[in-house]
């Protein structure tokens, strides 16, 4: 192989892959994005890059940002290559690459977040977007209300000029903008949360109210928080992914691999303007809720259907889970009999068609999305993705056996030991608590459901609780695969009713 080309502005003309055709030195910032992970760079940054390739949106470039010390490593990698990223698209039959250049800087990460606050206070910044994970919005998992007692937020309310969280930094920047006579920016969540814009508004306004009620009222009345639905599978980057860039002659320390699918549906509520992302494939819609319900319930909840079983059985990736006969049969049946009945069609797609699409996407062997990554933070993902489906099924008097098995397998996984005896390393912010309860639930399954911060009153829903206890006992006594087979091929009791 010829000598590798280190990715930078100076070497773009040497590359043989698609690359920025615009003058990056002429770009000016219009967006701050907090949480510059693989998903953001494969999704939102790519949509903006496509507009820039058409000679548009050159005043909307992205300033990357982070609020945690571990973000500094990504900042260092990206600054060393002028904030360029190689995106490698992995189709089952083809691999292609392009370099994306819509991010032009990455803000310094400091205690108190002064550089971030200063950047967001600049009126040139008209959108502050974020991908901070589903559990990062300080929402009580049962009530869905604002968790103002969290120590992070208590700190930010007491120290509003030197906050520790992204939301405290947003409040501080909006305070400076109001004092200077500037209007607010749009705050845009790009996380997998139902009503993510509404949740972001709740967090920002409620936090502001803790230190400055007048500011909170100004934000609530003038800032906008559009809901959005985002979708693109972008696995974590490891040695295999880094090596893929070298196949194209590129040395990239922060390469991103992704599938050949992207979807972005956004509520058109931007108080300070926006790029025309719809010109490059995004959808502006007044009914984001329908799109996000379909995606969150079939894709995101579907990930949890697969990942916990995969972890227990030592199946390393989502594609391998789909190739495992018992896990795939379980996934297919739960989707069609217990998840699809809670999902309405959207323009151009029925729930059945979307399930078929997801099955194809998950089965792509080139996308090495690990079960560990997908199973991470189950305490947020089960409460956010799976349990709302379960509640709807119970309310309609429909089957919950498969969903009960999903929860039982999560409980079994949290015991931290696979069936081959290997250890499942901690994989949740409250892992120790979950593991302790999971071990107690081996003898008394009801103890798992007694976690009120996760299940609320679901422990009192007899059809679910009885099924859960039965499935967890079976998973421990006869193994995970025996439970999967019993559900997919067993008695009518295990099948449940799908009418209604």
UniProtKB/TrEMBL annotation:
The keyword Oxidoreductase applies. Residues 287-468 form the Mannitol dehydrogenase C-terminal domain. Keywords: Oxidoreductase. GO terms for molecular function: oxidoreductase activity, acting on the CH-OH group of donors, NAD or NADP as acceptor. The keyword Cytoplasm does not apply. Gene3D superfamilies: N-(1-d-carboxylethyl)-l-norvaline Dehydrogenase, domain 2 (1.10.1040.10), NAD(P)-binding Rossmann-like Domain (3.40.50.720). Residues 30-278 form the Mannitol dehydrogenase N-terminal domain. This is Mannitol 2-dehydrogenase. It comes from Litoreibacter roseus. The lineage of its organism: Bacteria, Pseudomonadati, Pseudomonadota, Alphaproteobacteria, Rhodobacterales.
């Amino acid at each position: 192989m010829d000598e590798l080309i280190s990715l930078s502005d100076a070497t773009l003309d040497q590359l043989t892959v698609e690359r920025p055709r615009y003058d990056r030195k002429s770009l000016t910032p219009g967006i701050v994005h907090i949480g510059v992970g693989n998903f953001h760079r494969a999704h939102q940054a790519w949509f903006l890059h496509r507009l820039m390739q058409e000679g548009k949106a050159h005043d909307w470039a992205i300033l990357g940002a982070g609020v945690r010390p571990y973000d500094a490593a990504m900042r260092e990698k990206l600054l060393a290559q002028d904030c360029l990223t190689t995106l490698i698209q992995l189709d089952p039959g083809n691999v292609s690459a392009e370099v994306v250049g819509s991010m032009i800087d990455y803000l310094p990460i400091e205690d108190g977040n002064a550089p971030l606050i200063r950047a967001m206070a600049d009126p040139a910044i008209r959108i502050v977007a974020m991908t901070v994970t589903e559990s990062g919005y300080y929402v009580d998992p049962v009530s869905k209300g604002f968790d103002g007692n969290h120590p992070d937020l208590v700190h930010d309310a007491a120290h509003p000029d030197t906050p520790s969280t992204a939301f405290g930094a947003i409040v501080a920047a909006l305070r400076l903008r109001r004092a200077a006579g500037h209007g607010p920016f749009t705050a845009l969540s790009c996380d997998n949360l139902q009503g993510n814009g509404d949740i972001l508004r709740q967090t920002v306004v409620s936090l502001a109210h803790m230190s400055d009620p007048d500011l909170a009222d100004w934000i609530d009345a003038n800032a906008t928080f559009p809901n959005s639905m985002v979708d693109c599978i972008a696995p974590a980057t490891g040695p295999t992914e880094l090596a893929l860039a070298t196949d194209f002659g590129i040395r990239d320390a922060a390469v991103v691999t992704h599938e050949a699918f992207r979807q972005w549906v956004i509520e058109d509520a931007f108080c300070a303007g926006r790029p025309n992302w719809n010109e490059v494939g995004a959808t502006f819609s007044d009914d984001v809720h329908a799109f996000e319900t379909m995606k969150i319930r079939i894709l995101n909840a579907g990930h949890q259907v697969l990942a916990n079983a995969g972890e227990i059985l030592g199946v390393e990736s989502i594609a391998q889970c789909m190739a495992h006969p018992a896990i795939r049969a379980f996934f297919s049946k739960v989707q069609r009999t217990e998840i699809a009945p809670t999902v309405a069609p959207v323009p151009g797609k029925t729930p059945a068609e979307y399930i078929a699409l997801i099955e194809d996407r998950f089965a792509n062997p080139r996308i090495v999305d690990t079960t560990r990554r997908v199973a991470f933070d189950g305490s947020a993902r089960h409460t956010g993705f799976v349990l709302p489906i379960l509640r709807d099924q119970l309310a309609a008097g429909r089957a919950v056996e498969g969903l009960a098995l999903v929860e039982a397998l999560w409980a079994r996984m949290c015991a931290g030991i696979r069936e081959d005896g290997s250890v499942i390393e901690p994989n949740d912010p409250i892992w120790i608590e979950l593991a302790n309860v999971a071990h107690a639930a081996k003898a008394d399954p009801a103890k798992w459901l007694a976690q009120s911060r996760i299940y609320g009153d679901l422990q009192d829903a007899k059809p679910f609780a009885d099924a859960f206890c039965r499935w967890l006992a079976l998973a421990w006594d006869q193994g995970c695969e025996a439970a999967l087979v019993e559900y997919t091929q067993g008695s009518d009791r295990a099948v449940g009713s799908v009418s209604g």
